[in-house]
Amino acid sequence: MRVTVDEAREYFAHPSQHAFGLTEKDLPEDYVYYATDGVCLAFHGVLWPGVWACHVGVKPEAWGHTVMPSKALLRAFWADTDPKAVVFAINQGNRPAVSLAERVGGTMAGAFGGLVLMEWRP
Question: What is the DSSP letter of 92?
Fold first, then answer.
């Protein structure tokens, strides 16, 4: 399930995945990528020790079928890394992303500046 940055690029290639003007070419080399069934999760550490942020890339053919692959990827990452928490910072207007975070078991941690902050733990 773990993939390289080059393998992850195809999951972020669709224009709908280009948040803030970033494209698949801008994916950082130092993120940790997991992918399966049309879904790719990109993880990176944040300033709080043991906490990892998660970004989601989805191929169009997987739209509407992202919950189970996302859950599997989150569990795999957790098993490999043993973090304290995984967090999502999502634009409030991005209802599909907020809904996905909720459906995989994310809980509301807060909101500010137009962002919804959600936390995930197994």
Answer: T
**Residue pLDDT, tens place only, 75-103:** 999 999 999 999 999 999 889 999 999 99
In the chain, which residue ranges form alpha helices assigned H by DSSP? Answer: 5-8, 67-81, 95-103
Q: Which tokens go with 38?
A: 């049309």
Joined tokens for residue 14: 């669709």
Residue 76's φ and ψ, nearest 5 degrees, are -65, -45
Instruction: With beta carbons less than 8 A apart as the criterion, state whether 13 and 26 touch.
Output: no
Rounded to 5 degrees, φ, ψ at 80 are -80, -30
Q: Strand, coil or helix: what is 95?
A: helix
User: How many Å is the Cα radius of gyration of the chain?
Assistant: 13
The C-alpha atoms of residue 70 and residue 92 are separated, in whole angstroms, by 20
This prediction's pTM: 0.93
Sheet holding 115-120, edge to edge: 2-3, 32-36, 39-45, 51-58, 85-91, 115-120, 107-112
Structure tokens at 23: 């494209």
